[in-house]
Design brief:
The protein has eight helices and six strands. It is of the alpha+beta class and about 180 residues long. The longest helix is centred in the N-terminal third of the chain and has 23 residues.
């Protein structure tokens, strides 16, 4: 329990990921209202809350409580703090380099990386906007969606990656960095 209290008392980690989730959700709602994303739940629900807990996995979405739980162990807490500080410094120097910085930072890449296999927070947010909790039978089934006017069945990771990239195009990084100052 002490470990979780130490991490929860780290305002930088908590603020960074809370702001990321809130902005991701707000931008997703905008895309849904503009019919760029159809068959999602951005406008039907609120952004999930963030908790940091002892888990057997890096992240988990709890539909009942509308929360995303992250596992941040003691060592990665320091890595995350350093990575976030360096990201902010990098963004001040060159805002256009944020994506490449995250891609090359092993710690941040695990949580918010932009790869075809969705990373922890993006993966869990996909469960939220798909309104699909982890279940043994259908957790990562294909999902019918309309993205940018194309209606088809998307794999879980493909839909998560496409939606994430659409949200990034709406200015997620610059808004996130500005929200931290």
């Amino acid at each position: 329990m002490l470990l979780i209290e130490v991490i929860n008392n780290n305002p930088l980690i908590y603020k960074f990921f809370t702001n990321f989730i809130t902005l991701f959700w707000t931008l997703g709602q905008k895309l849904e209202r503009n019919d760029i994303i159809i068959e999602s739940s951005f406008t039907k629900s609120t952004a999930p809350k963030l908790t940091i807990e002892n888990l057997n996995e890096l992240g988990h979405f709890d539909a009942k409580d509308n929360k995303i739980a992250l596992q941040v162990n003691y060592l990665s807490k320091y890595d995350l703090t350093n990575s976030i500080i360096k990201l902010i410094e990098q963004a001040k120097k060159d805002p256009q380099s944020i994506s490449s910085y995250i891609k090359n930072d092993n710690t941040l890449r695990e949580y918010i990386g932009t790869t075809s296999v969705s990373k922890v927070i993006v993966h869990e947010l996909a469960h939220v906007w798909r309104h699909q909790e982890h279940s043994p039978s259908s957790v990562h089934d294909v999902h019918n969606m309309t993205l940018e006017g194309i209606n088809k069945l998307y794999t879980f990771d493909d839909s998560a990656s496409i939606v994430y990239n659409l949200i990034l195009q709406q200015g997620l990084w610059s808004q996130l960095i500005n929200s931290l100052f």
